[in-house]
Amino acid sequence: MADKIAQPVKDIDILPAEERDLLINQWNDLADDYPSAGCLHELFERQVTKTPDASALIFNDHALSYAELNRRANQLAHRLIAEGVVPDSRVVICVDRTPLMVIGLLVILKAGGCYVPLDPDYPQERLHFILADASPILVLHDNAGQKVLTAAQENGLLTLELTRTLPEQAPQVTGLTPRHLAYVIYTSGSTGQPKGVMIEHHSAVRKLPVLRDVLAINADSRLLQFCNFSFDVSVSKFFCPLISGTGVHLLESHARQELMQFWSLCDRQGITHVSLPFQYWNKLIETGFPDATSSLKCVCIGGEKISAKAINAWLESSAKQIKLVNYYGPTETTITAT
């Protein structure tokens, strides 16, 4: 540089050839044949044809197969279409952490609508704001949702229950394309009112296979769905396993509060992957890991940057052999950005 003081900065190569090749070629060798068309629920339906008898949902030691999950979702999707749901229709879903949560998401998508998740534990003020702002055509709920949404009768509350007399085949939704909305998830509102972020099918369809491969999720994996479904990271925790031939293990709300019960479930179910809120992971660091966590292969942490102190504590614990992933991404970028 000193010998060529008139050289433009843009022409100065600050990286050695070996490091440049590492950054640009070796680490960036990610080309693959990922799907670029179709809708989110169609990825699931393709997996149903491959593994119809595999367990898709596991809850309280009871399992629901891919074929049965698909049949149940198809049945209620016909009901939603009859109620007027069309592509881009917003449908609020307010349910507890049971199989109805996953069934409900698929129901809305299969009917052509986009789902707007509401946690029944949210403050009434937030629930009412989102209901008013989203202007849903329907509101799906279970008993937990019904208790907190009594003020939403004008939105056409529809109880989330299965009607066995309806057709079991997937409905044909006229005009539905990957450019229609898959979901609307509201931000925390920490800097003002919550804002609904609209994500189209094609964005999720493109991102999910990438996350599946990066996290090494396959048919032998066992994923524990720990995340609140009102946060966008839950999209990957529901659908990455459901496009991989493995099952989603649902954890009841009260079980999330007891650390030892959490680890006991991981051991009993052979959980390999879990995504934890930052504060919960910090508690694990403070209390320490039990020795019997051999099945876990990957723990994902999101929401905040992990400190060097916390990472060192992890590496010095019995969990040091478990892959730790710290991800970040605003809802607008579809689940993650980095």
Word description of this protein:
This protein has one domain: ANL, N-terminal domain (Rossmann fold), CATH 3.40.50. Helix 3 crosses helix 4. It is globular and about 80 Å long. The two termini are 34 Å apart. The strands form three sheets. A seven-stranded mixed sheet has the order 2-1-10-9-11-12-13. The chain has 338 residues and is α/β, with parallel strands linked by helices. Helix content is 36%, strand content 17%.
Question: Key features?
Answer:
338 residues; alpha/beta; Rossmann fold; seven-stranded mixed sheet; four-stranded parallel sheet; 11 helices; phosphopantetheine binding; AMP-dep_synth/lig_dom; Non-ribosomal peptide synthase; AMP-binding_CS; AMP-binding
Topology summary:
Elements: H1 17-26, H2 40-50, E1 55-59, E2 62-65, H3 66-82, E3 90-94, H4 99-110, E4 114-117, H5 124-134, E5 138-141, H6 143-148, E6 157-159, E7 181-186, E8 196-200, H7 201-214, E9 223-225, H8 233-242, E10 248-250, H9 259-269, E11 273-277, H10 278-287, E12 298-302, H11 308-315, E13 323-327
Parallel strand pairs: 1-10, 3-4, 3-5, 5-6, 9-10, 9-11, 11-12, 12-13
Antiparallel strand pairs: 1-2, 7-8
Helix pairs in contact: 3-4, 7-8
